[in-house]
Structures are given as C-alpha cells and as structure tokens.
C-alpha cells in the first residue's frame, strides 16, 4: 500500500505536465499540418469585417480574443472579427466561452464585399450561446453546436456558462461536420437535397449570397455580448 500514493501522485503530475497549453500546437499537430490562426497575444491575422484592422472592441485578454463591451460603451466600434485569409477545405478547431445571457457564433464561408454589410449574409454559422438564459435558447436550431437556424444538433453538448467549450468544424468539398466537446452535433452536405430542404425551411431561403462561396473568411461574431475565443487553429484538407 505504501507505493500507491507516490505512484498516483506521479501519474497526476504526468497528466498535468502533458496537458496542452492554450494557443499552442503539439509536435503531432504540427506534423499533421495544423497552424494557429491566433497567437494568443495579438489580433495579427484578423480584421473587423470590411475594415483594414481589428476594432479596438476586440482585445486580447488572458490569452483569448475577447469582445470588450465596456470599450463599445465608451465608443469603440464593434463588428465581427474575420480572418485575413480565406479557406475552402479545412478542419477548424477553437475554444469558446460565452458570457451570462450571451450570444455569438463562428461563421464560415464569409464573402467580404461592401454590398454585403454583415458576415452572416454569406456565411453559415455554428451557434455559440448561453442556451439557458439567452432568448434564442428557446428556439430549435438556435442552440450551441447547431447549424444556426438550419439544423439542430443530434445531441446537446455545451458546457455551462463560464467554462471553455471545444468546437470543431470540418468542411471538405461541401460536406460539413460539427463537433462540440468531442460530440458530433451536425453532419450535412452543402448543395445536397437535404441542404436545399434545410435552406428552404430557414430564414436564409431568399438570401442570394448565403452559402454561395466555397472559399471564404472565418468570422467570430459580435452579437453585442461578451465572448472569448482561444486556441484557434486550422488544418487545410
């Protein structure tokens, strides 16, 4: 029995030491082609939609991209934060944390055009939400992990407000797969018969630019609430 405690302690220390730090890549990830989209320190590689750089409302806070509502109240312009680069076939992984009663989203396939004044006019969205306290939480297809307003998650997988969630989007030749905290929540193929039905039954059915761009920017949504993103990384397919 005297050996059990030291062995257990060693196991816990090993587990702790092997835990990956936010905004880093393991050797295995680097070999597989993963790249960081956020360095954990600056907004380099990002800009506010239709702007040349990131709005002051988006700042780096404790290693996370944070939407600062106080800054907005003091006059700093907001807006969705988008990648400088465009992507077509990829796996995207990130962690998010939402404020109490908050709403945000990860929008992809975003086309940047002055005639399109918002990211969501062209890009589908993986919902980010305080499902319990935001009004959207009462609506089907509006909960965390859903393909927003198009398809409901097969299983609810979000963590409570204040905890970090790990989200993953895989987009390959139009096939979409979402995971939230290791649980597959969505699978569908853009342009398929199922997709056309989902689109017809959504608010986007008459939006001419919606989901029309195979290659586009990735956006973090400013929906007017506090939200944090970190460990944003991508692997091209």
Automatic annotation (TrEMBL):
<dbReference type="Pfam" id="PF06439">
    <property type="entry name" value="3keto-disac_hyd"/>
</dbReference>
<protein>
    <submittedName>
        <fullName>DUF1080 domain-containing protein</fullName>
    </submittedName>
</protein>
<keyword id="KW-0732">Signal</keyword>
<feature type="domain" description="3-keto-alpha-glucoside-1,2-lyase/3-keto-2-hydroxy-glucal hydratase">
    <location>
        <begin position="33"/>
        <end position="235"/>
    </location>
</feature>
<dbReference type="InterPro" id="IPR010496">
    <property type="entry name" value="AL/BT2_dom"/>
</dbReference>
<feature type="signal peptide">
    <location>
        <begin position="1"/>
        <end position="19"/>
    </location>
</feature>
């Amino acid at each position: 029995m005297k050996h059990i405690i030291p062995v257990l302690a060693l196991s816990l220390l090993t587990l702790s030491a092997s835990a990956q730090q936010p905004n880093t890549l393991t050797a295995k990830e680097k070999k597989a082609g993963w790249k960081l989209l956020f360095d954990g320190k600056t907004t380099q590689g990002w800009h506010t939609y239709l702007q040349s750089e990131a709005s002051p409302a988006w700042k780096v806070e404790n290693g996370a991209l944070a939407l600062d509502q106080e800054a907005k109240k003091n006059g700093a312009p907001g807006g969705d934060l988008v990648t400088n680069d465009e992507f077509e076939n990829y796996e995207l992984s990130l962690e998010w944390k939402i404020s109490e009663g908050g709403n945000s989203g990860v929008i992809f396939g975003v086309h940047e055009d002055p005639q399109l004044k918002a990211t969501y006019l062209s890009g589908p969205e993986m919902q980010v939400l305080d499902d319990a306290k935001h009004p959207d939480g009462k609506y089907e297809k509006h909960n965390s992990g859903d393909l927003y307003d198009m398809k409901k998650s097969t299983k609810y997988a979000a963590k409570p407000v204040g905890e970090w969630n790990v989200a993953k989007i895989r987009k390959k030749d139009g096939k979409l797969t979402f995971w939230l905290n290791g649980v597959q929540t969505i699978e569908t193929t853009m342009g398929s018969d199922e997709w056309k039905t989902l689109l017809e039954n959504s608010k986007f059915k008459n939006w001419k630019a919606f989901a029309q761009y195979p290659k586009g920017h990735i956006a973090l949504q400013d929906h007017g609430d506090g939200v944090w993103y970190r460990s944003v990384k991508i692997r091209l397919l």
